[in-house]
What does this fold into?
Amino acid sequence: MNKTVSMSHTVASRLLKGALANGFGLLVIVVNQLLSVPFLLSFWGTNLYGEWLLLSAIPAYLSISDLGFGTVAANEMSMLVAKGDRKSALEVFQSVFVIIGIISLSLILLLLVIIWNIPFESWFHLTVLTHTAIVQVVILWVFIAFIGLQDSLLEAGFRCDGNFAMGTFFLNLRYLLETLSLIAAVYLGAHPVIAAASIASVRLCGFIALRLLLKRKSPWVVYGFSKASFLDVKRLASPAIAFMAIPFGNALSLQGMVLAVGVVIGPAAVVVFSVTRTVSRIVSQFIISINGSVRPEISMAYGKGDLGLVGKLHRMSSQFSLWLASAIIMVLLLTGGWLIRIWTHGKIEIDYVLFSLMMLVTLASSFWYASSVVLMAVNRHQKMAVVYLVGTSISLLLALLLMPKWGLNGAAVSLLAVDMIMTAYVISASLSLTGGSLSSFVKQIVTPPSLGGVFKLGNYLH
It folds into this structure.
């Protein structure tokens, strides 16, 4: 009994530390948006800032060039280390390091060859930046994205050894420093090219520092080629390719929708849509914060064969996600107009229909995301990924059809449609994996979480 209680408190301690690290990340995101959006609007104006948003969205598609292997490696390594098998975990780490390097470098080199001949100006209605400046900004964002691809392996190294909170904290700290460097550069009169270069410099230095920290905390997690195995790559290929659909679907939903708005309506509408969506996604950031700390624990519990703990973590995270999302949405519906006016210094006025629709989108996406963590944490997400990719693709096409008549509201309706589909599918699949019933799941999540449970997470794990 003492061993069980001790283990419960160990899990609870890691959950709390992970939640605090993710909470810091949430604070960084809020600071980034509160500072950078009005600051860049003030110094660059709506048109130049709109072009910056469009160009920074393009390299986001490079996030899929690791083919999902980084995320799958983090799950697999966590489950293997939970079993006491570090040897196999290192083989997975080095195998994925090799395959990510080969694929991402090949794609980036291809992009750098063709980038000069892409007609950015006519495709995205760009009128402020010159073609040379556009290409330079995109190249720098490609470099930033390439360094970012290495984050998934860094996270895997920290996470599998129980150091998820530490890795997450320092990755978030690096993101904060990137934001501050951007603001400092623009304040000193930097053009978008120099601004992108400042972000790239901080990201590179941060990556080097994180590699040194990982080496100190987990010296057995060694970058190299000697342990790499084609068999490991082949075994992980199916869940990895399925994981690729998730960031690609995210890119379609986030950056893809921004590009669609830019093509159909123009850069000024991009700013309105981005500002509205950023405020509405405050809710999502809280939910991601909660579930980000739960996911490593689900991987380890599943690796040990403890489905009971997996089910408890699923119900707990879903319960907190639903109630927290609902509470924040109520506050934002009352204060959103004031917040946007203050935030943008009166340059952007809220469209209450659009804002309300985006809140519905956020509530639906927050709820299904909490359940999706179960499937993703144990690499059993293949069918979910297909549903998500198909859904986001249809959503983007639907937005292109609706926006000429409904404007930005058409984009919001198309996003809501895919999130409703995902909610129905993901909850069913997660309960099937954990062996839980829909009635007991619903009964717990509709019950308000106790304040004691918030501060004593171990109570959920006994």
User: Anything to note?
Assistant: The two ends are 10 Å apart (CA to CA). The chain has one domain: 11-461.
